[in-house]
Amino acid sequence: MQKGNISVQTENIFPIIKKFLYSDQEIFLRELVSNAVDATSKLKTLNRKGEFKGDIGEDTIDIMIDKEAKTLTIRDRGIGMTKEEVEKYLNQVALSSAQDFVDKYQEDASIIGHFGLGFYSAFMVADKVEVNTLSWKDGAEPVRWICEGDPSYEIGEGDRDFRGTDIILHVSDDSVQYLEDSEIEGLLNKYARFLPIPIRFGTKTETTYEESDVAVIEGEEKPEPVKVEKEVDNIINNPEPLWKKNPADLTDDDYKDFYRELYPMGQPPMFWIHLNIDFPFNLTGILYFPKVSGGLELQRNKIQLYSNQVYVTDDVKEIVPEFLTLLHGVIDSPDIPLNVSRSYLQADTNVKKITGYITKKVAEKLNSLFKDNREDYEAKWADLGVFVKYGMISEEKFYDRAKKFVLLENTDNRKFTIEEYKERIAENQTDKHDKVIGIYTADEDRQHTLVAGAIERGYDVLKLEHAIDAPFIQSLEQKEGMTFVRVDSATPDQLVQKDEEKELLLNEEEQTTVKDLFTTVVGEKGNVELKPLDTTDAPVQIVRNEFMRRMKEMQQLQGMDTSMFPDMYNVVVNANNPIVKDQILNNEDEAARTENATHLYQLALLSQQLLSGAELKAFVDRSVKMMK
User: Fold this and answer.
1) What is residue 620's predicted lDDT score, i.e. its pLDDT?
2) Would you say 342 is a known binding-site residue?
3) CATH architecture of 12-201
């Protein structure tokens, strides 16, 4: 077996870096600013260790544009580099000075970089890169390093007279957008807004209003405040974001203010969770519960993922369960495994642990809110309900926790836990198979007549009116031993099936006459059946098969084409209602019988708002005629 070493052609390295290392070209600024932050953090670590005994002084990182020279400069006042360090870390791709530093100082260093590749992202936008640096070490000489995007470089004496490093990018012609103030400020706001070292991007005009010093004569109005404008440093970032602070030191207003900082145009959140864990992994963050009573999709991608305060992504589906993507906020963890470009997550056991931890904390928060102040929890249920139900149908572990605080709301606007509701309806809504039957409406206004009919029989009716309720009902049926039926799935007497038989008041000939007539009137839109209901029940009712309707709704929810499934229903004629006998059987005028049957059928359709515009007009005209 022959052995050897893989050969890497150095002349091919830069084209690969330029085109394929990073998913987005704009990430170069994040990488270079992160390196500047690392350089400053290293100096502070050396100062704490007593190895650097000088004055740290100003630690601000400057971002500077020179449009005339076509340069973009990232300046730090950090650790700097000696000539030997420049040769070691800049001339060898993928050799990380950050990793060397972490290996040496371990727990006392919070360093962003690890791969030794971030610096080379500069060549994605620059034809030439200069490094002008001066080390913190006594007696160090300034060093200048120049590279034009190929394996050759120049190194020599620099002219920097203060500690730290300038990275000077000579921006290429195809990247001149990065010489625009608005472009750079936008990228800094995206990637650097919470970095732990102040980031300065020029100056800005700050306007204040000061009280006039003109003496006020008694009886005269006080002069208007004086407008004062002055130039101040434009500090882009908040170096001490809320999630890095001790929750015990924070007020509700602090959390609300930070939410406005994250989402200036957002509605105030309902409440929040402050995440803070250091074992078995490090993770901090704040998750906010927004109002999600509306659509699901519009709320997604509002959680921002950071690693050591460096923005990574807002696509966090790999680290939080899908239902938690409805939350807003920030998660920061140095233990989240990232790919080389820090653009997305890599599969890792830590990710599963973090996912489980976040799910558990969310469930604990909701449970404590429910137990500590149920009245307030119920008041928020219109917004919380979608979130909780979504979690229950998508996460097994969350279902087990959430079944204690998920609420079922009835048409009296009263809310119950699952166990409370089962106990409430068990006596009156247990069928002949010993199944507890939950009766619900998907649209209380549209199904008002049917809801009223069920309530008249002593039944309790739930409101399950959101798209998420269809799969939620199925989860409850699978795990809670209940069966759910919609108010239009059967006539009121059959919503909860009992061993009761009613006498049919029509003979066989009369039954045939009534069924044939209604079959003709209904046509292919539905199936007609005669039933011996109570004499006070409506003469004609529309019912839909629960199984078929659910199957169609689930397919619609999944975006499937349901055109092959027509909206079929059963037309139940109450053979015991006296109107059927009086207006159908006892009417010798065949045309009048047909007219009456059509009217009763359309009245049933109207009760569920199933009439088309033309049918509704015909119904109204017929009603007026009959009244005359």
Assistant:
1) 67
2) yes
3) 2-Layer Sandwich (3.30)
Give strand pairing partners of 88. none
Burial 326-344 (b: 16+ CB within 10 A, else e): bbbbbbbbbebebeebbbe
Neighbours of 589 (CB within 10 A): 9
- Residue 431 marked ligand-binding: no
CA distances from 612 to 81, 280, 559, 618 (A): 80, 62, 25, 10
Q: 570, 526 in Cβ contact below 8 A?
A: yes
Residue 360: CB atoms within 10 A of its CB come to 13
Cα–Cα distance for residue pair 552/195, rounded to 1 Å? 50
Tell me if 531 sits within 8 A of 574, measured CB to CB: yes
pLDDT beyond 50 at 113: no
Confidence (pLDDT) at 339: 43
Nearest to 157 by CA among 168, 172, 146: 146
Reference 490, options 422, 440, 536; nearest CA is: 440
165 is in an annotated binding site: yes
**137 near 82, Cβ under 8 Å?**
yes
31 is in an annotated binding site: yes
Q: Give the burial class of 110: count Cβ atoms within 10 A of its Cβ; 0-12 exposed, 13-18 middle, 19 or more buried.
A: middle
Q: Is 594 labelled a binding residue? A: no
Mean pLDDT computed over every residue of the chain: 84
622 annotated as ligand-binding? no
- Closest listed residue to residue 93, CA positions, set 7, 17, 34: 17
CB distance 80 to 134 below 8 Å: yes
H helices within 10-157, ranges in order? 13-20, 27-49, 83-90, 97-105
Residue 32 is classified by DSSP as H
Check residue 405 and report its DSSP letter: T
CATH value of 508-544+562-627 in 1.20.120.790, 1.10.1040.20, 1.10.1740.10, 3.40.50.800: 1.20.120.790
- The single residue listed with the structure tokens 């409406």 is 441
Percent helix, percent strand, percent coil in the chain, to nearest 5 = 40, 20, 40
Give the pTM: 0.77
The domain limits of the chain are 12-201, 242-363, 374-494, 508-544+562-627
Q: Do the Cβ atoms of 124 and 22 come closer than 8 Å?
A: yes
Nearest partner of 418 among 371, 462, 466, judged by Cα: 462
Using CA atoms, how far residue 233 sits from 56, 71, 133, 181, in Å, is: 19, 21, 24, 15
Q: pLDDT tens digits for 402-433?
A: 999 999 999 999 999 999 999 999 999 999 99
Number of Cβ within a 10 Å radius of residue 38: 26
Of 580, 432, 446, which is closest to residue 496 (Cα–Cα)?
Answer: 432
pLDDT at 549 over 90: no
Written as one string, the DSSP assignment of 548-574 is: HHHHHHHHHHTT---TTS---EEEEEE
Residues 6 or more apart from 593 whose CB is under 8 A from it?
517, 583, 584, 587
Domain 374-494 class in CATH = alpha beta
Q: What is the DSSP string of 98-134?
A: HHHHHHHHGGG------SS-GGGGGGGTEEEEEEEEE
242-363: CATH class: alpha beta
Phi, psi of 164 (to 5 degrees): 120, -165
